[in-house]
Design brief:
7 helices; globular
């Protein structure tokens, strides 16, 4: 219960931060990404502020034996830069550049009821489902007849 309440509170704070910084506005994001045109650098300040809080926060938290409201830390185990990581980063960047949404701001923007937000989030969930479905079929052990 405490862990769920903490996650909800963190999500609300994160969503409010995205809304206040206007990162939920695709036009603002696209203007930030348009460095060769009508560039709007204001989101760089938002990202710098996020890094200023996150970097020391992670360094401090990782010195703890366990999180405050969970049994253990959930840290990524992969350390390699491989084709799968690069492809995912490319798909993310291309999608962000095309429509001005990334997952966090898109979900936060649902609160404003924009049709584009619902379309993006629905497409995001379908893509995640397809990825999981594809990952599961690759992970299934092959039978003896398939190996021959």
């Amino acid at each position: 219960m405490l862990q769920s309440a903490g996650a909800l509170l963190a999500g609300i704070i994160f969503g409010l931060g995205l809304a206040v910084s206007n990162m939920i506005n695709p036009a603002k994001v696209l203007a930030f990404l348009d460095v060769a045109g009508r560039w709007d650098p204001s989101l760089a300040l938002v990202m710098a502020g996020a890094l200023a809080v996150t970097l020391p926060g992670f360094r401090m938290a990782l010195r703890w034996l366990q999180p405050l409201i969970a049994g253990h830390f959930e840290l990524p185990s992969a350390k390699n830069i491989d084709a799968r990581l690069l492809a995912g980063a490319a798909i993310f960047g291309i999608g962000w550049g095309l429509v001005g949404f990334c997952p966090g701001p898109a979900i936060a923007s649902l609160a404003f009821g924009l049709k584009e937000s619902f379309i993006f989030v629905a497409a995001m969930f379908v893509g995640a489902w397809l990825h999981r479905a594809g990952s599961r079929t690759k992970a299934l052990p092959r039978s003896a007849s398939q190996r021959a």
